[in-house]
Amino acid sequence: MKAVKFESTRGINQINCSKHFFCMQMLEKLSADNYKINIHVPVLGTFEHFELLNYSSPLSRPLANLITNAEYNVSILYDRRESPKEVEDELDRIFEIIDGDMDVIIKDFSRPILQKHEGNSFNVVFIHSNESLELFFSIVNSDKFTSQSFFFIVIPASFKIFINLETLFERFLNYGVPYVYTLTVAPNDEDAILHTYYPFSANKCSDSTPVIANYYTAKYENWTEADFFQFKVQKMFGCPLRVATFHFNPFMILKEDEDGKISVDGIEGSLLNVLSERMNFTIEIITSNDRWGIIFENGTTTGNVQMILNRTADISLGYFSVHDKRQKLMSSTSVYLISNLIWAVPPGEPYSPLEILLKPFEKSLWNWFFIVLISAFVIIRVLRMFPKKVQYFVFGRNVRHPVLNVVNIMLGGSLPKLPVRNFARTIMMLFMFYCFIMNNAYKGGLFQFMKSDQTKPPLSTTTQLYNKNFRFYSIPDGKIFLNETPKILDKTIFLNNPEEYDEGLKHLRDPKFKRALMITQEKLAFENIKNSPDVYYHRANDVIFRQHLVIYMNKFTIFEWSFEDIILQLVSGGFMDAWIKKFTDTDILKDRVEERELALTLDQLMGAFQLLGVGLFISFTVLVFENCLFNIKKCLKSNSDQFCENCEMK
């Protein structure tokens, strides 16, 4: 007897079968629920009442060998409406042959089956009629399978004469399913032949011609080739690969030569070139004005997404980031690059002439400087109220204007008369030493500052930009990310074409431009390298979002596995980092040569002239005030003298 264990979400049932039809009746009852069947087959001689079937099929042992050697969980699919008895007999013969324990999932694909999972990778499909074939084609492109699922289609001799293998393989090729094999009986009615197709060969592209992949010899009970699972798209023999992309520095740089042929460069362009070299395909560029494309709520699409879905293009790349909406419609490779989205901001506003003069010292230093200066004036004023003897002791006998001497020393001038007493000289030397340090520190700081850009630091955070009432520029796809920040979204202007985006980047050179532009960190570095030393674009320190870049393709494509292996090798080998450094390394920025002459300009020293003007205005005001005061005194004195004369006359 054979022990067959049926596993389901409702529990495990084990049934001992002495007759194959009893087991198959149980399968008939349970297979509609996609039961997992674990077959336990002990050594044949241990069964006292084991009974072999008195008939055999040329496909039983080849199939049993295939299932036993499968690297994945096996799913057996059949259309129970069309051929229940034939399939059940074949399955019973296969189970009798299998030696050992293994998991098998039996499914009736005329009924709804489970979503794709590990068990759907290796599929043995029984086809007995055109109706079954069409029914199977209706689900092969569904979410039950992937383009990398293996399909071994069992075609009995009775139906073989109605099947054109080339037409069959052509349909699978159009569906993007490469790993399809047909198992048929050999002309000698004893052996079995495994046919398949290879999409690319040395002489043909998109070829569906049937070729013999393996041959089972009944006499020796083995296959000619031990490996059934081989990659089919490792080499494309120069066949074209349609790539949906667009020019987007520095990721995808499109270059058109005199003959109109488009070549690619850039970070992702370099990746595409290596894929082309490794897989030996010819790059055929397809562009769209809608670039990445939009996925609308009603399911319609535009741009590169649309070209992938309607198979106008085979793959799409060019700063294509992972997103839930895209993942539902398309398949993608592993992430090969993580890019930061940042705000490019205008430079800081230039300092005013007075700010330039005050810039060498911080506010706290200026405060202490004026505290010392005012303290000196106050001390001098207080000492003026003391006797002359005390004033001579502190100021010196021959010093008549100590306030002017303080101002003179502070400005680096010399004294016409020096004090005689040691105490007065000591105070003067200490104050001169203090003024010497302050004076030279100010001059050095002012000189260094005038060699710089003389502009205020740019705004460095999104909060500062928002508080300064900035508006934000973004590409249309940016709305996907900005939905999480409604305050920023309300102030965002979406730029619909590259020309507007480039124009916005040019405006960022103006300090008065109150806009911030969403840009990739790599593109900003690339633009700085390209425009150095004339132009330098600034950035805020915040990272808005991190983009995970992938290659997108149709959910059913023949290229997924081949791309995946190569991309993982390139990432682990550091090639992506090298290409990023090549196009965005700011260490190789050209020296920003100072074009102005060494002579200072009027704008740089306008503050000094403004102070001079203020001083002249104050001097003129004092002069007018003194003249008025003198005339008033003179008038009052004249009136007083005249009044006295009149009094004497009386």
UniProtKB/TrEMBL annotation:
Q: Where is the Ionotropic glutamate receptor L-glutamate and glycine-binding domain?
A: 250-310
Q: How does it sit in the membrane?
A: Multi-pass membrane protein
One matching Pfam family: Lig_chan-Glu_bd
* SUPFAM superfamilies recorded: Periplasmic binding protein-like II
Task: Report a single Gene Ontology molecular function.
Answer: ligand-gated monoatomic ion channel activity
Q: Which PANTHER family does the record cross-reference, listed alphabetically?
A: IONOTROPIC RECEPTOR 20A-RELATED, IONOTROPIC RECEPTOR 40A-RELATED
Q: Which residues are in coiled coils?
A: none
Please give the superkingdom of this protein's source. Eukaryota
Q: Which UniProt keywords apply?
A: Cell membrane, Glycoprotein, Ion channel, Ion transport, Ligand-gated ion channel, Membrane, Receptor, Transmembrane, Transmembrane helix, Transport
Q: What is this protein called?
A: CLUMA_CG001079, isoform A
**What is the phylogenetic placement of the source species in the record?**
Eukaryota, Metazoa, Ecdysozoa, Arthropoda, Hexapoda
| Entry GO CC | plasma membrane
Instruction: Give the species.
Output: Clunio marinus
Where are the membrane-spanning stretches?
365-383, 423-442, 608-630
